[in-house]
Amino acid sequence: MQIGIDQLAFYTPKTYLDLVDLAHARGEEPDKYRIGIGQSEQAVIPVTQDAVTLAANAAVRVVDDTNRDKIAMVLFGTESGIDNSKSAAIYLKRLLKLPDNIRAVEIKQACYGATAGVQFAHDYVRLHPDKQVLVIGADIARYGLKTPGEVTQGGGAVALTISAEPKLLNLDDATAFRSEDIMDFWRPLYRTEALVDGRFSENVYVDFFKAVWQDYQQQTKLTIGDFTAFAFHLPFTKMGLKGLRAILPEASEDQQKQLMTNFEASRQYNRQVGNLYTGSLYLSLRSLFDNADLKPRQRIGLFSYGSGAEGEFFSGTISDAFDVQASRRWFTDFFRSRQRLTMTQYERLFSQQLPDHDVLLDLSHDDARFVLTGIKHDQRQYLDRGE
């Protein structure tokens, strides 16, 4: 019996910033951003969207009347939680009208949270093959205006269903993981923006990737020659390229070309969206599926990394039922419909923060199905426009 990713959807608001505009405004050469870090655009998240609404807008594309009653768990990976106690998954469960007899929990370990959810879901479905698990990675990446990390901001959500006999990717049982207490990136409770030791974090990322890749090879006896492509956690796409280059010498010349071609396919969407934190790896996987020339039964390697730090390498083979046409059309339509912000609009939108008191928000500039309407009696108020 195969267990793996059956469906994989994405959502982010249509407002975005072109990084050429950001470079000019900050006195930088555009190629520093486009080539140096591998980004061209970034999503800008309005105050009417949070981790819950982002997740709901992604999840409605993978949850409907055909599988709603099959979902046994909601595992919500995020480092942008909205409450110190109540799980974002509970809010999502209600918005999606999921049954009451399910588990709904939030998982936190920086950008690694969604991968923990995928692995927990894999084990659960193996014991309960008639059930599915909804896994979410939803975040808003904020470093602040005119900061070194500004160019690696972004946000959005991925929603995956894990099931038996999946339509996208059959996950292999073998996995290699590593954790260490490292201060390369952190988000104190009293701050709305993250803190990061950028160069140190890049080095830890590559070191963790090499360590778990070697561990995986020792476990499985597989080599780089057994892989058609690799998908990486991409806080910015140049980071994944550094990881891939660390192992490329293990491949033949022809395979190196294939792996580089497929890496370019895997970072196409991330270049245009920016940093998703927990969702970054899975947007990269979606981009690989949609933009590379893949065939059933080819093996894909996946590297997940969460600062602080946790890393994991795992793999899967493409399902015989693999079909990407609908996803390709969705992304084509989405990118065509986006609204490019001016620097003034971007800075104003970025600076709008939810207050710590009751408020009613202006929804006129947010056309999403699920929106945050405000706060009432210290409770976030959500609206489903599809009802």
TrEMBL record:
Keyword field contains Transferase: yes
Domain Hydroxymethylglutaryl-coenzyme A synthase N-terminal span(s) in chain numbering: 2-164
Binding positions for (3S)-3-hydroxy-3-methylglutaryl-CoA per the UniProt entry: Y143, K242, N275
Any GO BP annotation: acetyl-CoA metabolic process
Keyword Transferase: yes
Residue numbers annotated as active site: E79 (proton donor/acceptor), C111 (acyl-thioester intermediate), H233 (proton donor/acceptor)
Listed GO MF terms: hydroxymethylglutaryl-CoA synthase activity
Family label: Belongs to the thiolase-like superfamily. HMG-CoA synthase family.
Name used for this protein in its record: Hydroxymethylglutaryl-CoA synthase
Organism: Secundilactobacillus silagincola
